[in-house]
Design a protein that fits this description.
By secondary structure, the protein is mainly alpha-helical. It contains 8 helices and 3 strands, in the order αααααβββααα. The chain has a 3-stranded antiparallel beta sheet with strand order 2-1-3. Helix 1 runs antiparallel to helix 3 and helix 4 packs across helix 5. The radius of gyration is 17 Å and the shape is globular. It binds manganese (II) ion. The site of manganese (II) ion (MN) has 7 residues, from helix 1.
């Protein structure tokens, strides 16, 4: 019997397509080494466990805090991360109902970007900053440590910003704020807004 294994998702771009915001070297190391390691760990830890065969969101929500939930969370977050980018010339701004909700929640789209930058700057250590929508349809910006994910708290992540140093150190060294600011050139907001059930 062939066992189900989680696989690296195909990227919608080439490894060098996000440069200079994210260099080919950074994307290659991040996707092919870090992401793959979380995946390999997840597949290994699932083998023979009661969580084998569950969907990734189910594993993320049901596994108790520990190696399995850490690696499942990292796989889930990295899927969000890598699928939300496009080469600069294809980047689209938010629109429609999504943009309306952003303006209602944060004042304007620019204010949302400023808030995401401020939040990711002030977060200490390794983790993620997210734009999320909760069960009541309210948007907010939040951060979580290590491999934790908003799914565990009943919230839907729409945008995921990786704050681990492996995401930016080669290109920006300690300049996390500059890294986050330059992400805006490659975020596919049509993809981000498609994550919300409108
Ligand atoms: Mn990462």
């Amino acid at each position: 019997m062939i066992k189900f294994r989680f696989e690296l998702p195909q990227l919608g771009y080439q490894l060098g397509d996000l440069a200079p915001m994210m260099s080919q070297e950074t994307v290659s190391l991040h996707y092919d080494r870090h992401f793959r390691t979380y995946l390999d760990n997840l597949n290994r830890l699932l083998e023979g466990s009661i969580y084998e065969g569950l969907s990734l969101p189910d594993i993320v929500c049901k596994a108790p805090i520990g190696p399995l939930s850490n690696n499942a969370g990292q796989v889930y977050n990295h899927q969000l991360f890598f699928e939300q980018f496009v080469p600069t010339k294809h980047a689209k701004l938010p629109s429609g109902e999504f943009l309306f909700m952003v303006e209602q929640s944060f004042g304007s789209f620019d204010r949302l970007l400023q808030l995401l930058e401020k939040e990711s700057m002030s977060f200490f250590g390794s983790g993620w900053t997210f734009l999320v929508v909760n069960a009541d349809g309210e948007m907010k910006v939040m951060s979580l440590s290590n491999g934790d994910t908003p799914l565990r708290y009943g919230m839907t992540p729409l945008l995921a910003i990786d704050l681990w140093e492996h995401a930016y150190y080669l290109d920006y060294q300690n300049r996390r704020a500059e890294h986050v600011h330059r992400l805006w050139d490659i975020v596919a907001w049509d993809m981000v807004q498609s994550r919300m059930q409108l």
